[in-house]
Amino acid sequence: MHSHPEAADTLIYGAMLYDGTGKPPVVRDVAVRGDKIAAIGNLSNWIAEEIVEADGRALAPGFIDVHTHDDTHVIREPQMLPKLSQGVTTVIVGNCGISASPVALRGEPPDPMNLLGEREAFRYPTFGAYVQAVNAARPAVNVAALVGHTALRSNHMDRLDRAATPEEIDAMRAQLEDALAQGALGLSSGLAYASAFSAPTEEVMALAEPLAQAGALYTTHMRSEFDAILEAFDEACRIGRHARVPVVISHLKCAGPSNWGRSVEVLASLERARASQRVGCDCYPYDRSSTTLDLKQVTGDIEITVTWSTPHPEASGKRLSAIAGEWGVTQQEAAKRLQPAGAVYHNMSEDDVRRILAHPATMVGSDGLPNDPLPHPRLWGTFPRVLGHYARDAALMPLEEAVRKMTGLSARRFGLERRGEIHVGYHADLVLFDPARVRDVATFDNPRQAADGIEAVWVNGVLSYRDRAPAGDRAGRFVPRGAIASGDAAARSGETF
Length: 497
Known about the structure:
Strand content: 15-25%
Shape: globular
């Protein structure tokens, strides 16, 4: 060792280190210098400005939320407390076919783009303009972004209830290619929504063609998560094969009581597809979903809670069945009168949630809706819920596997270079938490509550959250697409995509 001590900005002593690869934890010291990890090992001969005694608590890579709708939120509320307080250090925006850029609206944002905000929130006509706005806002977390298929359709089509013409597809492709050149991660679709449901598979295939050369990927909120789920999964795989790109199935679930239990079949299809192409998925650890109030889902066989309604703000927090009763109308009629509106759907079985979450190909993503006045608790609770409720209390998986699903697996899949694992030279995105105490506190009735047991969070080497409060400067930045894991790197994290 050196005769004179090495110096770091921050030294974390005696941590139980979960490196993000899924390997069992080891006790290590970690030194941070600037925005990078400088050393890992026994660093008793080092000196530092800031010393943190971990006392055997868990130190993991900062969590990567692969499925968010934080596109405009990272700019409007850059402190990003709902995510930072969970240990999230990077968010991936632009999911489900809806993105804040590149967008030039002709009128109001079409459903479900309205989840990202009102008309004035869409002020990024090019992807480059969005990148600049993120960096200028300096959010507390890193931001990487997909481009939404529905956003592209809305830019180039007079109405969304039809297929795009070849000329419109060319115009959309040109915009996508420009975004890829500016660092976009890939293309996302939301084929279940009315704004994209009329797009034939061929339209998405043609749009996906530029992705391979850019080393980008395709993510999708599939055309159906209900009874036609296997056909929708096949369509997603077909698009990936055609474009020769990796596919990520967003928030994989078996929605609707007639579908409960079918996660066995769906995961068997996933396994078969993985033998010949790169396909994975993400999910959130709850048995209720949330999006805009969709008349197609008002079937009477599940409970629906209204979270917001533009014409009837007083409906927030009420069951749709109760509102229909009060008004003396059918649930379908009540839902029409509430439009535009948002809702929580009680539409999944706990067994399916567990089976999908435990699958080795599954990453964790919150799908939280930051603009919702009564957000689903996943906005604040997703990551601690996996660590506490599912990994520790339900023993669904070892803690190191839960961490891998939130870090290493996610970084490799989306091409976030030098993030998601703890190695020398990697970005110092870190979270220190107490495995015995970590738990989600957010509930459906009271969703805006920070988790317990998340003790400190560093973003790019800067202490950003400590003792349930923001600390230090906001140190996030826009993260452009790097190389999607292949070969050695993938093998090292046990990632077969």
